Amino acid sequence: MDKKYTILIIDDKVENLKYLNEVLKEENYKIKATIDAQFAINSILENPVDLILLDIKMPVLNGFEVCKILKQNDNLKDIPIIFISALDDVDIKVKAFENGGVDYITKPFEQREVKARIKTQLELAGSKKTIANLYKQQDFFLKKIIHEMNTPLGIITLNVNSLESNIGLKDEFEAIKASCKSLSSIYEDIYYLSKKEKRILALEEIDMMLYLSKRASFFDELANVKNIDMELHLEDNFSINMNKYELERVIDNTLSNAIKHSFENTIINIYLEKNKIRVQNSGHEIKSNDEVFKAFHQDDNEKGLGLGLSIIKEICEKYKIIINLHTDKKYTEFSYDFSQILIR
Fold first, then answer.
1. Which of 52, 153, 273, 340 is most exposed, with the fewest beta carbons within 10 Å of its own?
2. Strand, helix or coil for residue 87
């Protein structure tokens, strides 16, 4: 064992402490033991341990009370606690798990069982720490990507517009601007994911005809690269109460996804109807209809990070926007029903 784990045993019976101490020393653990629960709590605050064996029936503070105190402390709440007791009762065991215990060992102790359960919980705790560290690294990585992408995108767009003003329209300029908008959409997805837990997003009244027209216009250059026409069918209009940035993630990801998966020289039809938006494109049939909204999911024809549709689903669930997906060999259609957030 590479790391020498520290285990704290709390039990009001000295003979149990001695027995467990002898058993666990064979596994090269560092053992701390006490009959005083309050002393143990104070000690852990100063020097956290890797695992706690905690008796239930003790004077002054019982095991459940000790566990509750530890779980209320942010620095100690992740320490795995294995309850030990002579009580072999289902209700007591259930209560032990409900109070935050990860396992339950009954007395009299069986050496191999004690060792196996402790080893398993230490490995699980180690895995949780590894995953937590990976999430921290992922968050740092996303922030770095955001920082590194934004400035170059702005510079490229600014200079292409300047060149276009001086030289005139060129297919190459259109391709560069389209690529910038594609990267911009990816940037906004990553930015949304990295900030969503920390921002309070204000609601506002949004006129859907004006908003949808604006977003469709934004993607013209991206559609032109594949000679795709985007046709707006404004059959009705309505206003909703929603955060404009979150609506942008829904609409932009839907439109960019439609362009990405459309065949060249086709039409994307965008319908604004009563309470609804429908986006219909001709392209590859989506094979895994049930899986398509999962983060990082990709079909055989998928390009990109696979984040856009999972973000759409998350935002729609938040606002109770109903999503319907129809796909076959002729066309794919995403529709959104905004009835729950209409301004009437």
1. 340
2. coil
d(CA 324, CA 152): 37
To the nearest 10°, report the CA torsion of 236, 242, 244, 247: -70
Polymer length in residues for the chain: 344
CATH number of 6-109: 3.40.50.2300
Mean pLDDT of 117-145: 82
Could you read off the pLDDT of 284-340 as tens digits, one per residue?
Answer: 777 656 667 765 555 555 554 467 888 999 999 999 999 999 888 888 999 999 999
82 against 195, higher pLDDT: 82
Closest CA to 224 of 282, 168, 285, 171: 171
Q: Residue 199 contacts by C-beta under 8 Å, 6 or more apart in sequence?
A: none
Dump pLDDT digits (tens) for 49-108.
999 999 999 988 999 999 999 999 988 899 999 999 888 889 999 999 999 999 999 988
Residue in the block written with tokens 């506002």: 204
CA distance 159 to 152: 11
**Structure tokens, 319:** 């606002």
CB atoms closer than 10 angstroms to residue 286: 18
- CA nearest 34: which of 53, 12, 52, 49? 12
Q: Is the bond leading into 48 cis (omega within 30 degrees of zero)?
A: no
Q: What is the CATH number of domain 132-200?
A: 1.10.287.130
Q: DSSP character for 170? A: -
CB atoms within 10 A of CB 199: 10
Residue 194: its pLDDT value, please? Answer: 72
Identity (one letter) of the amino acid at 152?
P
Q: CATH number of the domain at 201-344, please?
A: 3.30.565.10
Q: Where are the alpha helices (DSSP H) in the chain?
A: 14-25, 37-46, 63-71, 90-98, 111-167, 171-195, 208-218, 220-224, 244-261, 308-319
> Predicted confidence band at 1 (pLDDT cuts at 50, 70, 90)?
very low
